[in-house]
Design brief:
The chain is of the alpha+beta class and about 100 residues long. It contains four helices and three strands.
Length: about 100
C-alpha cells in the first residue's frame, strides 16, 4: 500500500530535541508525522483537528445507525438487539452453520 501521509516527518529523536518548537508549531495549526526508525508511528495534530476528526466519526456513525434503523424494523433501538436476533433468532438457538474447513 502506498504511503499517503502528507505531513512533515520528524523522527522521535528530533522531536525530543525540538519539542518546544514543534509544539508551538502544532499549536499554530501545523501537523507532523512522528517516525520511529523511518516508520510513521504518530500524527501530532492541533486539538481543533482532533475534535473535527471525532465529530466526523460520530456523524458517520450516526448516519450509519440511522440508515440501519430505516432499513430494518421500526422497533430496532440498538445494534446489540439486532445482532442477537440475527445470530440466534427468537428462540435463542444459533442460526449459523458450523463447518470443518
Amino acid at each position: 500500500m502506498k504511503d499517503t501521509i502528507n505531513a512533515p516527518r520528524i523522527s522521535e529523536e528530533e522531536l525530543q530535541h525540538r519539542f518546544d518548537e514543534i509544539l508551538d508549531r502544532v499549536e499554530q495549526g501545523e501537523i507532523f508525522c512522528i517516525t520511529r526508525n523511518g516508520t510513521p508511528m504518530v500524527m501530532l495534530v492541533p486539538i481543533s483537528v482532533y475534535r473535527e476528526i471525532e465529530r466526523l466519526k460520530r456523524e458517520r456513525m450516526y448516519a450509519g445507525l440511522n440508515a440501519f434503523r430505516e432499513a430494518g424494523s421500526p422497533g430496532i433501538t440498538d445494534a446489540s438487539t439486532t445482532i442477537d436476533e440475527t445470530l440466534y433468532g427468537d428462540n435463542g438457538a444459533w442460526k449459523g452453520e458450523c463447518t470443518n474447513e
